Amino acid sequence: MLAALRHRYGILLVLAIVIAVLPLAFPSSYYFRVASLVWVSAFAAIGLNILMGKAGQVSLGHAGFFGIGAYAVAIGPTHLGVPSLVALLLGCLLSALLAFLVGRPILRLKGHYLAIATLGFGVLVALVITTESRWTGGPDGMSVMKLTLFGWRASGSDTWYWITGGLLLAGTWIALNLDETPTGRAFRALHDSEIAARVTGINVNRFKLQAFVIAAVYASLAGSALALMNGFVNPDQAGFLHSIELVTMVVLGGLGSVLGSIVGAAVLIMLPQVLTVFQEYENLLLGAIIIVSMIFMREGIVPMLSKFMMGRRA
Amino acid sequence: MTILKVDDIGISFGGLKAIDGVGFSVEAGQIFSIIGPNGAGKTTLFNVISGIYEASEGRIELAGQDVTRFAPDVLAARGLSRTFQNLQIFQRMTAIENVMVGRHLQEKCNLFADLFRLPSVTRQNKETRAAALAFLDEVGLRDHADTPAGALSYGACKRLEIARALAAEPRVLLLDEPAAGCNSVETEEIDRLICRVAAKGIAVVLVEHDMKLVMKISDRILALERGRPLIEGSPGEVRANPAVLEAYLGKHGAREAARA
Fold first, then answer.
1. Residue B85 belongs to a domain with what CATH number?
2. Using the beta-carbon criterion (under 8 Å), do A178 and B102 form an inter-chain contact?
């Protein structure tokens, strides 16, 4: 099984098996719900990892795109009479367009400056969502019409488990595809040395923008899926804390590792559920665990584990 | 045939003229070396020619076309490649992946084809890998193809950079101190490699401190001092010029060297 994780289809197969087998151990629908949450978050984290782990650009406002996707499927059917699925696509399109327009000027910035600029973008989206209450329901959020496909209504946590699981598989496949392609290599090259990438003929600005747009579309899709699953949206999904949560998933799981983003999402979604037994110490423990794991696993959980396994075999 | 023509180039940083009135031209297949003491402006000149800095004055022509103040990636597409004095290797990629990045301009790159990794992408990737392997072979790194670049020795990284630059199939290759930090065996390998590259008709512009290497392989040499041209000529002419010795050693040192 470990050897399989080195090949693109090996990873997909293992992931498919995990998704298929997990429900056998689920005692209640609550577990389906938590697992679906993991799949959705992992999907968004994989997209962000293409930007952060591959292309080496940070975004602290990524929940902004998540929020756009979520509110697209809320506002579209309710206010504009657009079917959910069309609204979802429109959300992706809007996110891609915004990422393109915003990314052009700000991706010229580096490091901390880029972080602040993307943070500003995220705050702006959250602000618009909170204040335009006529459309968005303001701070209280709004309900989302159920997804209907050819007369079939997608509801119930087990149904959404399979939908989000399928989505995650597709997202993983796309992200893994990028390795071993000119685009994927260009991302990694500009991450390691922007100047060397430029003199080898890589249009650095163009590829940064591509990575930013890809990550935005991933986040938007995840946002739409979560909103349709929950039947409800609120501005927190576009908020700063959610942006930080996504970044934490990527870094904790392992920058540049697709599998790492899934593991990072699983840890960050499940840990709070497990830690509820400690009641008021819950957040304190969560913070402590993240700090300790970053000290001892600086490269992230998955790269660290794979190094450990390879080292033992050698 | 003149392939690179640098005409009266100048650049200033906050009033300080780092390069002033430097000009030279290089023909296809020629090895043209730029020498000078530390701080003479050799690397700055390279940065201007490769588009990393913008020239404040002067004109650069590549294959007869004005390319002054062009961006580095545009210059690369026009056939200009370079290496760096302080290594600029893609550390987290394997050796062969580094060279494959060098093939970027030779590859068709379509985002959607890549996202779905269409059969054409896989096919092209195979071709790129085969081509990259040939370039690794050229610099003697074939056996290290799948080694992470970060784990290669300093001398191997120097050669890897040359392979990456060659992979772009350039017309002009700028080499910034390719032999720096290399032992005599490695220097000899690089010496032979440079001659092979020039024999293929690529114009090589070399910045190097190893005078033995420079004098041995150069067709022409330009000596710089404090950003200004001192003399340009054949290795014999430059070696015989007292001003060059003086620039390196100072007046007193040159007298001592002449006496010795």
1. 3.40.50.300
2. no
Instruction: Specify the number of domains making up chain B.
Output: 1
Give the domain ranges of chain A.
Answer: 10-19+31-313
Cβ(B87)–Cβ(B179) under 8 Å? no
To the nearest whole Å, the CA of B31 is away from the closest chain A CA by 21
Using the Cβ of A11 and the Cβ atoms of chain B, whether some distance falls under 8 Å is answered with no
Q: Are B46 and B173 in contact (CB under 8 A)?
A: no
pLDDT (0 to 100) of residue A223: 98
- How many angstroms separate the CA atoms of A89 and A101, rounded? 18
Contact between B7 and B22 (Cβ < 8 Å): no
For B53-78, how does the pLDDT look when each residue is reduced to its tens digit (9 = 90+)?
999 999 999 999 999 999 999 999 99
For residue B55, the one-letter residue type is: A
Query: Is A310 in CB contact (< 8 Å) with chain B?
Result: no
> Residue B196's domain spans which residues?
2-259
Tell me how far apart the alpha carbons of residues B52 and A186 are, in angstroms, rounded to a whole number.
Answer: 19
Q: By percentage, how much of chain B surpasses pLDDT 90?
A: 77
Which residue of chain B has the CA closest to A184? B114
Q: Single out the residue of A45, A38, A46 nearest to residue A19, CA to CA.
A: A38
Query: Which pLDDT does position B260 carry in this prediction?
Result: 61
Residues 6+ apart with CB under 8 A from B255: none
pTM attached to this predicted model: 0.93
A165: which strand partners? none
- For residue B152, the chain A residues in CB contact (below 8 A) are none
Give the pair of three-digit tokens for residue A217.
């579309």
Question: How many cross-chain Cβ pairs, A to B, lie less than 8 Å apart?
Answer: 104
Amino acid at B166: L
User: Looking at the predicted complex, does its ipTM rise above 0.90?
Assistant: yes
* CA–CA min distance B60, chain A (Å): 17
Q: What is the DSSP letter of B148?
A: B
B233 residue type, one letter: G
Q: Tens digits of per-residue pLDDT, A89-100? A: 999 999 999 999
Residue B246 has a pLDDT of: 81
Contacts of B102 in chain A (CB under 8 A): 200
Contact at CB, B116 and A177, closer than 8 angstroms:
yes
Residue A72's nearest CA partner among A147, A151, A22, A177 is A147
Quick check: B45 and B34 in contact, CB under 8 A? yes
- What are the chain B neighbours of A196 within 8 Å (beta carbons)? 84, 88-90, 164
- Contacts with B, A 179-208, CB within 8 Å: 180-186, 188-189, 191-193, 195-204
Closest chain B residue to the Cα of A202, Cα to Cα = B73
Distance CA B84, CA A196 (A): 8
Q: Which of A220, A199, A215, A180 is nearest to A94 (CA)?
A: A220
Residue of B nearest to A192 (CA): B90
